[in-house]
Protein: Chorismate mutase
Organism: Hornefia porci
Amino acid sequence: MGLTEYREEIDAIDRQIVELFQQRMRVAGDIARCKQETGAPVLDRDRETEKMRQIGELADENMAQYCKMLYNKILEMSRDYQRRLLDR
Ligand SMILES: O=C(O)C(=O)C[C@]1(C(=O)O)C=C[C@@H](O)C=C1
């Protein structure tokens, strides 16, 4: 495979990432509305700790560090989106 084919492969992967990321953010929005009803805080430290542990388990050993960096960012954006929706 050459550069063009590799880039096409990356483009196809990015289409999936964008779609899945948006799906995840929409579900985070649904969770925000649940939290609004119960008055629960946006940040759930225990859930995030467990999530980061899961990610470390799911990832290949040489990718775990990068997957955790990615999820730190994803969780930050998820909380940001929830706070924006809830206006808090
Ligand atoms: O599980 C929740 O309570 C969520 O709000 C979702 C989520 C996530 O994006 O995974 C976001 C914020 C919380 O701190 C924990 C997890």
Notes: The chain has one domain: 3-86.
